[in-house]
Design goal:
The protein contains 10 helices and no strands. By secondary structure, the protein is an all-alpha fold. The protein folds into 2 domains: about 80 residues, no CATH class; about 110 residues, Serine Threonine Protein Phosphatase 5, Tetratricopeptide repeat (Alpha Horseshoe). α3 packs across α4, α7 packs antiparallel against α8 and α9 packs antiparallel against α10. The N terminus and C terminus are likely disordered.
């Protein structure tokens, strides 16, 4: 294609000439037959091509950059239209708005397309806000249930402790840990420590030590120095008992 855009009158603006068709389309002095060829090559509508020229005129793009800029705009235009081939929304109104926007873009009515896409975006935004509110409400209800379940587990654990069923008590304390929301760190650490203490009472030291260390890590994370000291004492006591058992075994 001939990419020379000067008309036969030299640098005269074609909009000032006598060709009414070209005057309607551009101010670059491009002959109508060239415009038709561009539209066919780019795979765009004539009205879209008209809008391309208006964009370039507003940006005051010089004539020697016209060809490259037209091709750049045309590629973006085609890319945008390809995006409309698959619309992910399940909302019929959003789909309808985007279909209208696609038609407006094909015709080069970009301002109208902007408004239609803004309406689609706002409709999605409002739906997202409503859904987030529902999720937050459900999350709050879920947390209350989790806390209630954890409380029941702890009640069961204490009930087992008063009957000297320490192993069962430890199991219920561990169930409470599982039931508690992840962010309830202090409660989780407390239940882990309680489970360790219950197992320590029946000399299941290895299991108790494992639980104490988990509890200690959480208390250190949240900065509870008092509980950290309590656990370190318990851990030291287990190690001390273990060493004594080894000595006793050797003496026997």
């Amino acid at each position: 294609m001939d990419n020379h855009f000067e008309n036969k009158d030299g640098d005269q603006n074609i909009a000032q000439g006598k060709n009414p068709i070209a005057k309607q389309i551009n101010n670059y002095g491009v002959p109508p037959e060239t415009l038709i060829s561009y539209a066919e090559e780019f795979g765009v509508t004539k009205s879209a091509l008209t809008s391309f020229f208006k964009i370039l005129e507003q940006e005051q793009v010089p004539s020697w950059e016209l060809d490259s800029k037209l091709r750049e705009i045309a590629e973006r235009y085609r890319e945008l239209l390809r995006r409309f081939q698959t619309i992910s929304s399940d909302d019929p109104e959003v789909r309808n708005l985007k279909a209208q926007a696609k038609g407006a873009i094909e015709d080069g009515r970009f301002a109208e397309a902007e408004e239609l896409l803004a309406q689609a975006r706002e409709r999605d935004r409002e739906a997202v806000a409503r859904m987030k509110a529902v999720i937050a409400e459900q999350q709050a209800a879920l947390e209350k249930r989790q806390l209630s379940e954890a409380e029941s587990c702890r009640d069961q654990a204490i009930l087992q402790q008063l009957q000297y069923h320490h192993v069962k008590a430890a199991e219920f304390f561990k169930e409470a840990v599982v039931a508690l929301p992840e962010e309830r760190k202090a409660e989780r650490a407390e239940c882990l420590g309680a489970a360790g203490s219950a197992l320590e009472r029946v000399a299941r030291y290895a299991e108790a030590l494992f639980l104490f260390k988990q509890s200690l890590a959480i208390y250190r994370e949240i900065g509870n120095r008092k509980k950290e000291g309590w656990l370190l004492n318990n851990i030291s006591a287990i190690y001390y008992s273990s060493e004594n058992r080894v000595l006793w075994a050797r003496s026997d």
